[in-house]
Amino acid sequence: MRIVLLGPPGAGKGTQAKQISETYKIPHISTGDIFRENMSNDTPLGKKAKEYIAQGLLVPDELVVDMVADRLSQDDVLSANYGYLLDGFPRTVFQAQALSQINAKRDCELDFAINLEVPFDILIERISGRRICPTCQATYHIKYNKPKIEGICDLDGTPLYQREDDKVETVKKRIDVYQEQTEPLIEYYQNKHKIININGLQDMNDVFENIKEILSGVN
Ligand code: AP5
Ligand code: ZN
Predict the structure, then answer these.
(1) Any idea where the Adenylate kinase active site lid domain is (predicted)?
(2) Do residues 102 and 90 touch, judged by C-beta distance below 8 A?
């Protein structure tokens, strides 16, 4: 199963991706998570990415495409029958075209582009209340998805943190960038008959139920 998750910052991509990946046993590949891991390890890629991420801008296409191409050649993707769930990639038409070429080399294509629709005014509240576990990347929300003990990950007891790019000003920039550079992908995938629009305003469990209905018929 090959899926990409589309949607603005804070739409719930990471939240749904965790569940989809566990249920359908396909690797969850989040370009944002890969960049954050590189930033926290201070790698050359992390240093470059930080210049852009801190300002709410996209990391340049060449850097992202090479990184994803490399990730998609790893064993977990191959042993899932070239299966993957991409979260946060593609984000530009250039990236979408690159993905299509990567797939073509393996003689396969995408099953769906799942687009989580959430109005922009809701996104800021979602993102400013988000807390993340640095150990397992689980995502919580101070109001909508509280951990059992405030500020602590349910799964491994690690203290949660807030992302640096989740400050309101940076979030606004990320939303502008989304509108300019990523929203055109909805039409791109519509033209390829791949798009599935899901109402991301629902409770997160209902969003997942909708996604399962769509995926139930796919291998
Ligand atoms: P990335 O990490 O991909 O960030 P994003 O796309 O901005 O998305 P978010 O992680 O903010 O939100 P989400 O949709 O995953 O929402 P979540 O599930 O956490 O990218 C970060 C940066 O890296 C980019 O700005 C860019 O600089 C760079 N980058 C990454 N990929 C790139 C690429 N391909 N090309 C170039 N640059 C790239 O949910 C949000 C909150 O809401 C959580 O607290 C959650 O608990 C809560 N929530 C979720 N669902 C619901 C619900 N249904 N109801 C109520 N609350 C909910
Ligand atoms: Zn954790």
Answers:
(1) 130-165
(2) no
Distance CA(59)–CA(35), nearest Å, equals: 9
Q: Give the 3-state DSSP-derived string for 8-70, with helices as H, strands as E and coil as C.
A: CCCCCHHHHHHHHHHHHCCCEEEHHHHHHHHHHCCCHHHHHHHHHHCCCCCCCHHHHHHHHHH
From the CA of 50, the nearest ligand is: 1
161 is annotated as contributing to ligand binding: no
How do residues 166-216 score in pLDDT, each as one tens digit?
Answer: 988 999 999 999 999 999 999 999 999 999 999 999 999 999 999 999 988
Report whether pLDDT(121) > 70.
Answer: yes
Which segments within 134-216 are labelled E, that is strand?
139-141, 195-199
Neighbours of ion ligand 2 (CB under 5 A): 133, 135-136, 138, 153, 155-156, 158
Q: Is 108 annotated as a binding residue?
A: no
Cβ contacts of residue 32 below 8 Å, gap of 6+? 14, 87, 88
- Domains of the chain (ranges, CATH numbers): 2-119+171-215 (3.40.50.300)
Strands of 37-169 (E only): list them.
Answer: 84-87, 112-117, 130-132, 139-141
> Which residue lies with its CA nearest to atom 26 of ligand 1?
58
